[in-house]
């Protein structure tokens, strides 16, 4: 490219306004596919580089933000990633994502890799409790940090989901249907999603003066394999649960596999609640009831908090944004069959 | 941290050999959970930084590789990402992933962002045809490049999947069952997975001397929405297909939704084949037959090609590795009901 083409030339070639070119570049929703195509063809033909990228190259900064997640290949994270990425791109930042697989050495290695000048800010949802040496590493990060779905540490900006409220709703619904042996499978209580879900579960029982069965609370891991193993062993109890709440965004498949392996039918033999809508919960017959929330809102909020920190520096008071949840029981929740489950 | 702890101190504290600490750091499979936990505790207690990361910090290089995919939140990419990441981490590189959403301006912006010194190599599966200006940008990348599931351009190292062979198998199976109106939905023919699937589909017909119905070949997009829309309109034809091949790794859900909306049952009313096993294909009743391949092998191969290029520089002859596919019809493929479908 001998000469850098301008946005004006792109607009002229595509026969649209400069504002329209900008909306296409910023991937605004209000552009018709026809117009988008015309503008993208013009951009391609001229070899036009959108301003933000050009600017970042001139500035010589990384113009990149990093995001560390346990596992990125979870369909439900699609809304989070795409919304956050759009917000960052609009502001001229690329979003790079890395898998921690929930291993602390890897989390630390990725943080060090990011903080050696490769990113301007970090989004993270650590999988191991944030304390001691690990908390120190986070505190000493040379770039701003926003926690994703973690309510700790308190000194950090965070966006997290009201899993407590959603699990309270789901548990209350099951209790009202007559279930008295409800199991909840989720991650360790030290991590927000696990702790919050167990609190909502216990509070729903307490609100109705019903005692929760401690052996049915399995707060160990968010993984689908945990869903499979825990469900298998719970179904083998002499008094098995009549309902299961899968408290992890990719745990449902493990729970469903274990139920199927045992030859049980949903909801006749057992009621099931998942965490977050996905293809599996929607296309199961019957559709699985879920505690859900807006992953796009999580992504938009996280991006906006981090961009603000990058642009304006640290605030005196960290900000905490809580994303609401709702519960839709679908067809997977019915009164328990056995009379003995009411006691 | 006043002083940098050594691997020897970690081994001493965890009461294991140095080799075992190294195996834990490199996440070898042959470490028991008990030992792993002991070593990780020791690493944490001492604040030990594994060698590779320490080395990269001394060297002042990025020790990072970038990967650009259309959409990363596809469950089936989990094996690819985790295997590639393990291989890179073992070699001392962090893997950063970015979503292109299949948009060329974004692909270009990410490539520029990566190549401004932020990564030592790039894995990519472009979603737009590799030609003209775009091919030039790829050619002039200052770091090595390996193509993921693309057979173009020929000057580049690539690892791609034998979608042609798998689709040939699936199509042949459906033809042998008596289907004569088989639809295939996949991406544009200029991109390897789309073009390869259509070739396999046509070759299976040709092998049996049967003419494929051109109106049933919809090679436009890999997206699930395309699966939904194309299936809906195909099912509205006066002679609808009796079998559908969903030729995209996240297209199956769209196809299943459209079939369900129309009130049809699999396999009684229509046979269905998906691309790649996932929770949805496994847990559907009946399980959906799929063309599948080893995503771990794709990840391991891609990482090994790129690490070799980073370490030893460009080879004279680009290397092309083809990953085999297989077809398992499961319970979703049956002979067509209507007699008129045989002609």
TrEMBL record, chains A, B:
Keywords: DNA-binding, Transcription, Transcription regulation. The keyword DNA-binding applies. SMART domains: HTH_LACI (SM00354). Residues 5-59 form the HTH lacI-type domain. One of its GO terms (molecular function) is transcription cis-regulatory region binding. InterPro entries: HTH_LacI, LacI/GalR-like_sensor, Lambda_DNA-bd_dom_sf, Peripla_BP_I. Pfam families: LacI (PF00356), Peripla_BP_3 (PF13377). CDD domains: HTH_LacI. PANTHER family: LACI-RELATED TRANSCRIPTIONAL REPRESSOR, TRANSCRIPTIONAL REGULATORY PROTEIN. This is LacI family transcriptional regulator. The lineage of its organism: Bacteria, Pseudomonadati, Pseudomonadota, Alphaproteobacteria, Rhodobacterales.
């Amino acid at each position: 490219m001998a000469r850098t083409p301008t946005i004006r030339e792109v607009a002229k070639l595509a026969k649209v306004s400069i504002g329209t070119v900008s909306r296409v570049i910023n991937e605004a929703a209000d552009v018709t596919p026809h117009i988008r195509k015309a503008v993208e063809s013009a951009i391609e033909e001229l070899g036009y580089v959108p301003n933000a990228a050009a600017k970042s190259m001139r500035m010589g900064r990384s113009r990149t933000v990093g995001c560390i997640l346990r596992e990125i290949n979870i369909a439900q994270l699609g809304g989070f990633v795409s919304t956050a990425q759009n917000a960052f791109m609009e502001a001229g930042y690329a979003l790079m994502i890395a898998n921690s697989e929930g291993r602390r050495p890897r989390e630390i290695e990725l943080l060090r890799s990011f903080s050696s000048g490769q990113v301007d800010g970090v989004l993270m949802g650590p999988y191991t409790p944030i304390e001691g040496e690990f908390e120190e590493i986070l505190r000493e990060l040379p770039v701003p940090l926003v926690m994703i779905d973690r309510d700790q540490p308190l000194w950090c900006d965070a966006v997290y989901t009201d899993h407590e409220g959603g699990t309270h709703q789901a548990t209350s619904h099951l209790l009202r249907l007559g279930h008295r042996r409800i199991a909840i499978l989720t991650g360790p209580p030290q991590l927000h999603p696990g702790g919050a879900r167990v609190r909502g579960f216990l509070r729903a029982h307490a609100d109705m003066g019903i005692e929760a069965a401690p052996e049915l609370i399995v707060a160990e891991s968010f993984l689908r394999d945990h869903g499979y193993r825990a469900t298998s062993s719970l179904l083998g109890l002499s008094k098995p649960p009549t309902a299961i709440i899968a408290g992890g965004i990719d745990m449902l498949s493990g729970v469903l596999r274990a139920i199927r392996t045992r030859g049980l039918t949903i909801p006749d033999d057992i009621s099931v609640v998942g965490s977050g809508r996905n293809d599996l919960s929607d296309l199961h017959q019957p559709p699985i009831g879920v505690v859900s929330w807006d992953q796009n809102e999580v992504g938009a909020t996280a991006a906006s908090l981090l961009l603000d920190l990058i642009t304006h520096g640290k605030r005196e008071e960290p900000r905490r944004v809580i994303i609401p949840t709702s519960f839709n029981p679908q067809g997977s929740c019915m009164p328990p069959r056995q009379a003995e489950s009411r006691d």
